Amino acid sequence: MADTIQTVGPEIPNPWDLPLDTLDVSRAELFLHNKHGEYFRRLRQEDPVHFCQESQFGPFWSITRYEDIMAVDSNHHVFSSKRDIVIGDAPADFDTPMFIASDPPVHDVQRKAVQPAVAPTQLSDIEALIRQRVCNILDALPVGEKIDWVEHVSKELTTQMLATLFDFPFEDRHLLPYWSDVTTTSETVGIEVDMKHREAELHKCLAYFSELWKERAAQPRKFDFISLFAHDPETKDMINNPMELLGNLMLLIVGGNDTTRNSISGGVVALNEFPEQFANLKANPELVPNMVSEIIRWQTPLGHMRRTVKQDFEFRGKQMHKGDKVVMWYASGNRDETVIRDPDQFLIDRENARRHLSFGFGIHRCMGNRVAEMQLRILWEEILARFEHIEVVGEPTRVLSNFVLGFENVPVIVHAR
Fold it and tell me: Is 317 exposed, middle or buried (0-12, 13-18, 19+ CB in 10 A)?
């Protein structure tokens, strides 16, 4: 097998040339250079439940096949989400509990409190608003000039959507993606940062939202995240636990920003890499909803989720011990050849396109999945209505992270019809 694989780059060794027990798929540079695919392919083929003894984040298990990821993700009795969902451990002196990093009953109570904000009836009410915002963003793009798609479209659209879901002051909406980036930029994704500065900026986020909380609590209940938290009998006292409030704010901001933002960018990149698919899309615009699911699979905007073993447990013949880290690599499961036909191909008419792992599985399945799909669907409907082509004119710059799989910059030229 190794003889048929091309080298993956001067900085990154070919995984097929390395001893299997030394493979460390947590290295952020693999994702920065988009070279993680072969590492995961080898693990899926030779050791799908793989133990890495030494890494920047300590020892951990890698779960790389689709069916195994589903099994772990749906078994919260053995595989706990508490206290961390990323491969690294959060600083012990900056504990920010959040419902995605909790087990039942805490998880269920807090998730239920804010679920109405993204319920189908609520999304139906705001679809016209989102379409108008998409049209405004696209109509403002300079045709025929080189621009950064991330800055002009991906970030702006998701920021406006976040502002709607939080009923956040629109003039300050730029703070939301900033706080999202501050949240995800830490040593847990492989880079050195000033943790004191990070914590200070997140305390500013907490102070801002605490004022919004007080306002919403004094007003009649509405359907934004803050009002729903403030009025629910089970969560209305969260204001008295500021670190838990901050943790849930971080969750909702990142969940509403990074995932959709990077799928918007990833779709443009994929359609340029597979131009025949864009031709198919223009000929068959009714494929937009199906293509949205394929974009989310192809991009896999969150590369992994981590669980912690609650008790000694044998899984697929491997003995796991209480306290072990178990990492479900969604980026690998979404390319599992045993489940997904031609997984490395981007196919807008793929059968069962929604059968991807990008939203997770089980009780922790992303509650905002319909919001993400709606934004992407509206965006591509409006792109087809006004543009001939979104041409990528330079190498996209990816994010240095093993968690958020996204783009810093995607240089494009927009061509009018």
Answer: exposed
Q: What is the CA radius of gyration of the chain?
A: 21
Q: Distance between CA atoms of 287 and 291, rounded to whole angstroms?
A: 6
- Residue closest to 85 by CA, chosen among 318, 334, 255: 255
Task: Say which amino acid occupies 396.
Answer: P
Q: Where does the pLDDT of residue 333 fall: very low under 50, low under 70, confident under 90, or very high at 90 and above?
A: very high
- CA-CA distance, 390 to 413, in Å (whole number)? 6
Tens digit of each residue's pLDDT (9 = 90 or more) over 122-161: 888 899 999 999 999 999 999 999 999 999 999 999 999 9
Is 127:374 a contact under the CB 8 Å cutoff? yes
Nearest to 78 by CA among 287, 311, 248: 311
Range(s) of the domain holding residue 135: 2-416
Query: Measured between alpha carbons, how far apart are the two ends of the chain, in Å?
Result: 46
The reported pTM is: 0.92
Closest-CA residue to 101 (of 76, 82, 80): 82
CATH number where 91 lies: 1.10.630.10
Peptide bond into 48 cis (omega under 30): no
The H or E element that residue 230 is part of is helix 225-231
197-216 in b/e form (b: 16+ CB < 10 A) is ebeebbeebbebbbebbeeb
Using CA atoms, how far apart are residues 159 and 374, in angstroms rounded to an integer?
15
Tell me the H-state helices in 115-194. Answer: 120-139, 149, 155-166, 175-184
The residue length of the chain stands at: 417
Number of domain units in the chain: 1
